[in-house]
Amino acid sequence: MSLARSAEITALLKAWSGGDQTALDQLATKVHHELHRMARHYMRNEKAGNTLQTTALVNEVYLRLIDVKNVDWQQRAQFFVISAQMMRRILVDAARARGSSKRGGGAAKVSVDQEPIYSPERDSSLVALDEALESFSRVAPRQARIVELRYFGGLTEEEIADVLHISPRTVRRDWDFAKSWLMRELSC
Fold it and tell me: Which residues contact 182 (CB under 8 A, 6 or more apart)?
């Protein structure tokens, strides 16, 4: 994304948090395509026949964003990080609701590389990844945040480095560590 467009989105975020409702409408128009791209990435991992659609996921994020108060918006990436976290929560909650009777049904195969999650039971793999990531965040919070930003948020190494104020090399090293830890946890 160009610096001018990124700056424009940041300005709209700041105006919105200052109470300008027209800024929210303009912001929705500017970020709609990227939110849909993120939602499509998530929905690719959902079971066939899932009743939640990409547009519904984006709409739910919009509804939750409207309720977000007291956020000091600093940059465009921060908005997409929060949006990605909301999408993750929505999908995990839906997976838990659908699979509550299936708990304990065996280990789920989950890949944390850049490829989408693959599992015959995608609902349980998303829940398993979420639970492992929650445990990992207690052990290594920065590395867990990198997984969330990269895997769920779709941010590049450079964007993550900018958001977390670390070097891209540290992002790569933490990503490698996180993948190893999560793969070990998920294979148990």
Answer: 110, 112, 129, 132, 133, 136, 147
Domain ranges of the chain: 3-187
Task: Give the chain as a 3 state SS string.
Answer: CCHHHHHHHHHHHHHHHCCCHHHHHHHHHHHHHHHHHHHHHHHCCCCCCCCCCHHHHHHHHHHHHHCCCCCCCCCHHHHHHHHHHHHHHHHHHHHHHHHHHHCCCCCCCCCCCCCCCCCCCHHHHHHHHHHHHHHHHHHCHHHHHHHHHHHHCCCCHHHHHHHHCCCHHHHHHHHHHHHHHHHHHHHC
The pTM (predicted TM-score) of the whole model is 0.66
**Confidence category of residue 115, pLDDT binned at 50, 70, 90:** very low
Q: Which long-range contacts (CB under 8 A, 24 or more apart) does 167-175 make?
A: 171/146, 174/140, 174/142, 174/143, 174/146, 175/143, 175/146, 175/147, 175/150
17-60: pLDDT as tens digits: 888 889 888 988 889 888 888 888 777 766 655 667 888 888 88
Spatial separation of the C-alpha atoms in residues 121 and 134, rounded to whole Å: 20
Q: Which amino acid is at 9?
A: I
